[in-house]
Amino acid sequence: MSAITPFRLARTTAFAAVCVGLGVIAHLFGGGSLSGPLSGPMVAGGLALAFAAALPWTGRERGLAVILPLLGGLQVALHLLFAVGTATSYGQASEVGAHLHSGLVPGLGMLITHGWAVGLTALWLSRGEAMLWSLLRRLAARLFLLLDILLVPASTPFHACRSTEPEILRTRSLRHAVSRRGPPVVAAAAH
């Protein structure tokens, strides 16, 4: 199932917003500030970067195998963008050390924190993606069923459109369970 353009743009925008939000929050927890060096244009540039990187991947459903490396790579790019932007706005590269790391290379604690944050965010995004596509598939199936019912010719009797036995509704865990209650099917058919 492929996505149409407005749906792709909405998904890309949501992904970019979450990605940049995670980068800004990590920057703030790392000792940066929004008022000084991390300005609106820098955040807008990060948003444009995340949007451009995510747009080619939104044509179909994305799983964790696509979201995790994409989010991780974008977090590295945003970290570098914010670190370089912070250093150039202060006018000296040594001020990047005002964060919890020195220079453009983060320390081990920051790598572990970023890794956990990226992993949990990627898991959250992939589960949301799976739920969204599942909902869309169900809505499409219901729409096709409704259209099939509405487009049945009027000369066809209504009872011919429906199956003779109602469908047995089972939960997901009991879908493949076999019921052994009642008389055997052959014996019941002979009577």
Number of helices: 6
Tell me the overall shape.
elongated
Based on CA atoms alone, the radius of gyration comes out at 27 Å
What would you call the structural class? mainly alpha
Stretches where pLDDT is under 50 for at least 5 consecutive residues are 92-102
* Run of helices and strands: HHHHHH
**Total beta strand runs:** 0
Oligomeric assembly: single chain
Strand percentage: under 5%
**C-alpha end-to-end distance:** 48 Å
Describe it for me?
- This protein has six helices and no strands.
- It has a domain at 5-136.
- Helix 1 (5-29) packs across helix 2.
- The two termini are 48 Å apart.
- Mean pLDDT is 75; it is low at 92-102.
- It has helices at 5-29, 40-54, 64-90, 108-150, 158-161, 185-190.
- By secondary structure, it is mostly helical.
Q: What is the topology?
A:
Blueprint: H1 5-29, H2 40-54, H3 64-90, H4 108-150, H5 158-161, H6 185-190
Helix pairs in contact: 1-2, 1-3, 1-4, 2-3, 3-4
Quick summary:
By secondary structure, this protein is mostly helical. The protein is about 65% helix and about 0% strand.
Search tags:
single chain, mainly alpha, 191 residues, 6 helices, elongated
